[in-house]
Amino acid sequence: MTAALRAPPVLRVxxxxxxxxxxxxxxxxxxxxxxxxxxxGADGRGGWSSTEAAVPDDFGCLTSExxxxxxxxFKSADGSGTGACVPGGASGGGTGAGIVLxxxxxxxxxxxxxxxxxxxxxxxxxxxxxxxxxxxxxIVGAAGYLRGKGAKKLLLMGASREGTAVxxxxxxxxxxxxxxxxxxxxxxxxxxxxxxxxxxxxAPVLCMAAEYDESFGEDAKTLxxxxxxxxxxxxxxxxxxxEHGVALLDSVKNWATVQAxxxxxxx
Length: 267
Prior knowledge:
It is a single chain. The protein is an alpha/beta fold and 267 residues long. The protein has helices at residues 64-70, 113-121, 135-148, 161-169, 194-197, 216-226, 252-266, and strands at residues 71-75, 81-85, 98-102, 125-130, 154-159, 179-183, 188-189, 192-193, 205-210, 233-238. The protein has an eight-stranded mixed sheet with strand order 1-2-4-3-5-6-9-10, sandwiched between helices. Helix 4 (161-169) links the parallel strand 5 (154-159) and strand 6 (179-183). Helix 3 (135-148) packs across helix 4 (161-169). It starts with 63 loop residues before the first helix and ends with a helix.
């Protein structure tokens, strides 16, 4: 059965992407035979088309069986293909809210493997992006993919560079996501300016950073303070710690905080 297709997000950020982008078909990479929806893409005529790729991507951490089941390629908002790890595969994902996980600059989707699996077991439909450097476009495309697969609510979480990316992408989506979490996000990274973006963010947002992680703790405070229109803006400033990005979630307390935020806004 074709999954119900909601209107994909439209990006309205001049200089980053075009002002109106329809998120087109996705092509699956070895997800156990594809989703079988026979769709025609996000073009107003049907579902999301899919074809299997010849070689599943293990991203450097998946077993061959995991890669066969969970790796896929979706279309970013600019039309390029981007790899992702989707626990449960395209047709076997969770039935709850969709979560986009975006890794920091020194890694791949493997940064999120353990947390992605745990969130999937909790019932979420999870997509961990393996970025090729088109951060905002990839996040918008991932959001459109999950919404196209039937996710009624959308949650974003990014680490370090990709924390800046989710904060930049979120207010440019329509509708905005239901919650955003940024771990150790700098206010500005390359062409992405989260400090300019967050005043337009109406979705709940959580910024987390460690006290001794260079300037990232102060950046988290600045971004939290600037999120003036967010329906909830929460700062987690981890005193006495220096962990960065995904490593913040090695703390049971920090991970519980993230899970509670997702549950609150994704249920």
